[in-house]
Structures are given as C-alpha cells and as structure tokens.
From TrEMBL:
It comes from Bremerella alba. It comes from the Bacteria. The chain crosses the membrane at residues 128-147. Keywords: Membrane, Transmembrane, Transmembrane helix. This is PilZ domain-containing protein.
Length: 299
C-alpha cells in the first residue's frame, strides 16, 4: 500500500495471526488478519492465479478485486462490510504462493460493522472515537470557533479514490457539469432527477440549514440507524448512497487540509461541495425518501 494513501495509526494484531474469512460476491477466501487501524484492516489471502487473468495485473486498479465491497469475518470476533482499496503481491517469508495460486495483501476500508456479533475491537473503538472527534471539530468550525492546529492529525484518514471526487467537484465549480448520468439513472428509477424543479426546491431548502446539519445528513449513510430503516432503501440504493457518503468524508478532509488557513474560502468551497454531494444522493432517492432525508433531525 502506498505510504501516501495509508498514514493512519496502525496496530499489530494480537495474537499475531488472526484467522479470517473474506467473501467477495459469491467467492469466499480464507484470510489472515495482518493489522488493524482506525480506517480498516490489512489481510492476506490466497487466490487462484486464473482469477487474475492470463496477464495478471500491473496496476492494482486492474485487479478484479479492487474497489469491491466484501464481508470480512474475523474468527471469534466481529464481522465487517469493507471495501478493498489496495492490492499488492505478498512476498515475505510467510507467503505460500504456488504456481496455481498467488498470495495478496489487501488493504480494506471499513464501510460498517455488521451487528449481532462480538463488537469489541481496538479498531472499532478508535473509529468511533475518530467519528466523534470529527463531528465535534465540524461543530466548532461551523459555529465560528477557532480550530486547533492539530486538526489534520485528529481527523481519521479516509482511503478512497479522491482523484475522481476532485474531478467531479472541479467540474461542478466550473458550472459545466450536466448531470447526464445522474439524470438518466434517476429518471429510469423514479428518483429525484437533477435540473428539475423538485431537485431545485430540495437543494434550496438544504441551503437554508446549518452547515453542520448538512454534513451530518451526508454522513448519515455510513452507519445503520432507525432512521435509515424508515427510509426503506433497496440494497442498490444503500450501496450507492453509502459510497457517496464515504467519498464525502475523504473530500471534506482533503478540502480542510488544503484551505484550513483560509476560513472564508473553505466555507465557500464546502458549500459548493455539499450541493454536489446532496444532488448525487437525491438522485438515488425517491421523492418521498428525499423529503424524509431532507427533514432528518439529529440530537
């Protein structure tokens, strides 16, 4: 994993080899938990070489596992829904690759913990603490309080494809984005389509809300709650909005790191970013779901 993509605090796994199981689609792999951080887990798996194709892969994005949402079961511990965000061949002495199989080290980002199982883990507790710190820091900023210069170290690192998000955001800032993909998707599914009166009214209403409240609404899809159950989202809807919410966390962190010394500019660009995020989420909700989400209350 590239060092610039993984700089969050990591913890060695005790005992040194925790057995796990990784399920990707219909495929299930035996896995070994290597370490755990605030953001996710690193695991080693062996897969058939034929799974990678005749040429294997040079860039991790070419690997069929890259970007996939999977279920990680830690034997005797918890279960998580994770996204695979880094893939490198494992070549240390503990690897046992053969001609027919290859050992890979996977970096994963936790999407959510699957409840109903043992939930005690150092990484989970740190993630909860980090989420609380992030909410407090945004609250302080949005109420015009001064932030500590240590914000960058306190906000949990989010390992997602920031480049794609940045490109979309820059296009929106230029006023050139036409939302064709979102319009087609929303129209075909009966969701709220961009560039319609309904979307305009919802976005105008959202602009009238406090910034912190808007941030909390976007982050809402990262965790299970009674409110999400009331929305009655389909599996496809949940996957789409959860992905947007994860990207939002990375985008907001990146924006803060770039503009933390320019408060006014940060506020302006955060407002622009929130409009894009809200538009993308609304394009995956029905009109009734959209109204419920817009009027969600916290605290």
């Amino acid at each position: 994993m590239n060092s610039d993509r993984r700089n969050s605090m990591r913890f060695s796994v005790v005992p040194s080899r925790v057995k796990a199981q990784l399920r990707v689609g219909k495929d299930t792999y035996k896995a070994e938990l290597l370490d755990e951080s605030m953001a996710g887990f690193a695991v080693a798996i062996e897969i058939p070489r034929r799974r990678l194709g005749e040429q294997g892969f040079v860039c991790e994005s070419d690997c069929p596992l890259f970007g996939e949402i999977a279920r990680l079961n830690l034997m005797g511990h918890s279960a998580y829904e994770v996204q695979i965000i880094s893939i490198v061949p494992r070549e240390d002495e503990s690897a046992s690759a053969t001609k027919s199989r290859i050992c890979l080290r996977l970096g994963t980002r936790v999407v959510r913990e699957i409840y109903g199982e043992d939930r005690n883990s150092v990484g989970r507790n740190l993630r909860l603490m980090a989420a609380m710190v992030l909410a407090v820091l945004f609250s302080m900023y949005c109420t015009a309080q001064s932030f500590s210069g240590q914000l960058a170290a306190m906000v949990p690192t989010v390992e997602l494809a920031w480049d794609d998000m940045l490109q979309q955001w820059q296009t929106l800032r230029s006023g050139e984005r036409n939302w064709r993909k979102e319009i087609a998707h929303a129209t075909s599914h009966g969701y709220v389509a961009p560039n319609t009166d309904e979307m305009t009214k919802l976005i105008d209403f959202s602009r009238s809300l406090p910034t912190l409240h808007r941030v909390e609404k976007v982050m809402l899809f990262q965790r299970d709650s009674k409110f999400l159950q009331q929305l009655n989202l389909t599996a496809d809807q949940m996957l789409s909005v959860r992905k947007i919410s994860m990207e939002a966390e990375a985008a907001m962190e990146q924006l803060w790191l770039q503009l933390k010394h320019e408060k006014q500019v940060f506020e302006e660009q955060l407002a622009i970013l929130l409009v894009e995020l809200e538009t993308r989420i609304l394009a995956n909700l029905s009109p009734s779901q959209a109204k419920m989400w817009m009027h969600a209350q916290f605290g």
